[in-house]
Write a structure and sequence with these properties.
The complex is a heterodimer of chains A (about 120) and B (about 110).
Chain A: E1 4-7, E2 10-13, E3 19-25, E4 31-37, E5 44-51, E6 54-57, E7 64-66, E8 76-78, E9 87-94, E10 105-106, E11 110-114
Chain B: E1 3-5, E2 9-13, E3 18-25, E4 32-37, E5 44-49, E6 53-57, E7 60-65, E8 70-75, E9 84-91, E10 97-99, E11 103-108
Parallel strand pairs in B: 2-11
Antiparallel strand pairs in B: 1-3, 3-8, 4-5, 4-9, 6-7, 7-8, 9-10, 9-11
Classes of the chains: A mainly beta (about 120), B mainly beta (about 110).
Amino acid sequence: DGGITQSPKYLFRKEGQNVTLSCEQNLNHDAMYWYRQDPGQGLRLIYYSQIVNDFQKGDIAEGYSVSREKKESFPLTVTSAQKNPTAFYLCASSRVPGQGSDTQYFGPGTRLTVL
Amino acid sequence: GQNIDQPTEMTATEGAIVQINCTYQTSGFNGLFWYQQHAGEAPTFLSYNVLDGLEEKGRFSSFLSRSKGYSYLLLKELQMKDSASYLCAVMDSNYQLIWGAGTKLIIKP
């Protein structure tokens, strides 16, 4: 089955610690995205990548970092510089970036709680 | 700025019809998406509109008016499993998705 996997589903960390969220896709999609979802707000774009070894900042990139060394993988690191890291993090991928009909498909999400 | 507006919450009865509205103001327009999201789960794609008019897909239909900056999602023959949040998203001139906060739909028996 093709799809997007994120691990773990729930993650707890102490304040001041960096944490890396995993995202893997076997859909052969070129583009991958990281979003953050908070209650009562729309999804907000953190980072996106349209091709291997290249990525761009989204609207709320401060305190986050990413890498795209392989087409299938787009891990997100939440650093200690992120002031409010507790949130639901969603990874998505799409086949052909830069086209209006390019549908994004989502992984199951990781709920990060910083204590 | 860019803005997507949807009602926060709606309630409907099983077997009935409900219409969820979405209005948008964005820098450019390259299509509008509707997603369904059950609590604690990932959004799943429902529909895509880029031209004016109605797109029907089973019990779900989506309508777009570009001149009015308006879309709606119509759900017919409501089932309890339709209880979820419905997210409206517009692709702007940079091909980035701008998301509404979502409409939580509660279905009562």
